[in-house]
Amino acid sequence: MAVTKEPIVIGPIEYVKVIGHHGEARVKGKVDTGATRTSVDVWLAANIGLGPTVDVAKVKSAFLDEVRTRPLVRGIVEIAGVRFPIAVTVNDRSDMRYPVLIGMDILKSGRFLIDPIKKAPKYKVKRTKQAEA
């Protein structure tokens, strides 16, 4: 008999880890059931070394009635402890609140149940004292 895993409850905003060739970053990401693909900010993608570019994706804007193209690059996105090696679109998200948008390419895995009132867990940055010179 096959063992089924219980879905992991996530909220509309979750901490995600994005892993590239040069490092990783833990940032808040927005869960968007209306987005076909996961998207990562261009600055973040460059700093952690996402890539290589594998294709170009056509993306229809929710606000504009036009289709734009964006690079599609390889990377690893981890949400709620589950890793997804996927191709993500890269876009300038500097004017957006969250540098990562989690799309249906991850959500359709069936691993998650989205609770719209769940808050992202608090994440405190550990600071170390620097030695005085």
Quick gist of this model?
The protein is mostly beta strands and 133 residues long.
Q: Supply the CATH superfamily name.
A: Acid Proteases
Mean of pLDDT: 87
Radius of gyration: 16 Å
Largest sheet: 6 strands, mixed, barrel
Overall form: globular
- Reading off the top of the CATH hierarchy, the class is best stated as Mainly Beta
Overall strand count: 9
Sheet with most strands: strand arrangement: 2-3-8-4-7-6
Number of helices: 2
Which percent range describes the beta-strand content? 35-45%
Which structural class is indicated by helix and strand composition? mainly beta
- First-to-last CA distance: 64 Å
Task: Describe it.
This protein is mostly beta strands and 133 residues long. Helix content is 8%, strand content 44%. A 6-stranded mixed β-barrel has the order 2-3-8-4-7-6. Strands 1-9 form a two-stranded parallel ribbon. The longest helix is centred in the middle third of the chain and has 7 residues. The radius of gyration is 16 Å and the shape is globular.
List the topology elements:
Blueprint: E1 8-10, E2 13-19, E3 24-31, E4 39-41, H1 42-48, E5 53-60, E6 67-79, E7 82-91, E8 100-102, H2 104-107, E9 112-114
Parallel strand pairs: 1-9, 3-8, 4-7
Antiparallel strand pairs: 2-3, 2-6, 4-8, 5-6, 6-7
Question: What brief labels describe this structure?
Answer:
133 residues, Cathepsin D, subunit A, domain 1, disordered C terminus, globular, two-stranded parallel ribbon
